[in-house]
Specification:
Layout: H1 13-17, E1 22-24, H2 30-42, E2 46-50, H3 54-58, H4 62-66, E3 68-71, E4 76-80, E5 91-95, H5 101-113, E6 119-122, H6 129-133, H7 136-140, E7 144-149, H8 155-160, E8 167-171, H9 183-190, E9 198-199, H10 205-219
Parallel strand pairs: 1-2, 5-6, 5-7, 7-8, 8-9
Antiparallel strand pairs: 2-4, 3-4
Length: about 220
């Protein structure tokens, strides 16, 4: 099978958008992921892999695994040259509960791939509002806030009413019954009374991080 004909990477995306191409690995064979990494390596490039399952990672050639910074929780991988790392924390990734951590980690790892060092705050859902209030002054110092929640998804609305920074809400598929795999959380965020709340698709931590990066780059001095 000529795998190279199935893979057409967009090596010019960074020049157009400021963001490298990322590879969504769900549904791809390990052989296709390996071919992607081969092409990136041949150009001495770098790429972010998302939704890379542990079994896919283990099936990759050893040389690729050794060059891949893989995190099984978020199912993300960094291949080859990293971006320079910033010591300044400008983005908070705030998760309502530990069940939302997988999505939060995807957002945090995407930010880190691009050199941002996010502040990660977990288990501050509004069912125990005091937990959020204990961290709110720290959250207010951030340039951008990503708020992640499932179930009734109240966290982004509450945070949005307490801070002036841009806020990006990420609904997750966490919840029972009528939570409907995150549909209720998505609708709740879209119907939020917190003005200016931006909302991503369900479980899309990667997309939220990319939105935060675009905001940061527009607000930074050129």
């Amino acid at each position: 099978m000529t795998l190279h004909k199935d893979v057409m990477l967009d090596f010019a995306r960074d020049a157009r958008t400021g963001l490298d191409e990322a590879v969504f690995c769900a549904g791809k064979s390990a052989a296709h992921v390996a071919e992607i990494l081969r092409q990136v390596d041949a150009r001495n490039g770098r790429i972010l892999l998302t939704r890379l399952r542990p079994d896919q990672f283990e099936a990759l050639p050893q040389a690729h695994r050794e060059n891949l910074d893989y995190d099984a929780l978020s199912q993300t991988g960094y291949f080859s040259r990293p971006y320079p790392q910033s010591e300044t924390k400008r983005v908070a990734v705030v998760a309502a509960g530990t069940s939302d951590v997988v999505v939060a980690k995807e957002a945090a790892r995407t930010l880190a791939f691009y050199g941002e060092a996010p502040t990660e705050i977990t288990d501050v859902g509004v069912a125990g509002l005091w937990r959020l209030l204990e961290r709110i002054e720290e959250i207010r110092t951030m340039k951008v806030v990503i708020a992640i929640a499932g179930m009734d998804a109240a966290l982004p609305t509450v945070v949005g009413g307490l801070i002036s920074s841009p806020i990006i809400g990420v609904p997750t598929s966490v919840g029972y019954g009528v939570a409907e795999g995150g549909q209720t959380a998505l609708n709740a965020m879209l119907a939020s009374c917190s003005s200016g709340l931006t909302v991503t698709n369900i479980d899309n931590g990667y997309g939220a991080a990319c939105a935060a990066l675009r905001i940061l780059r527009m607000s930074s001095p050129s």
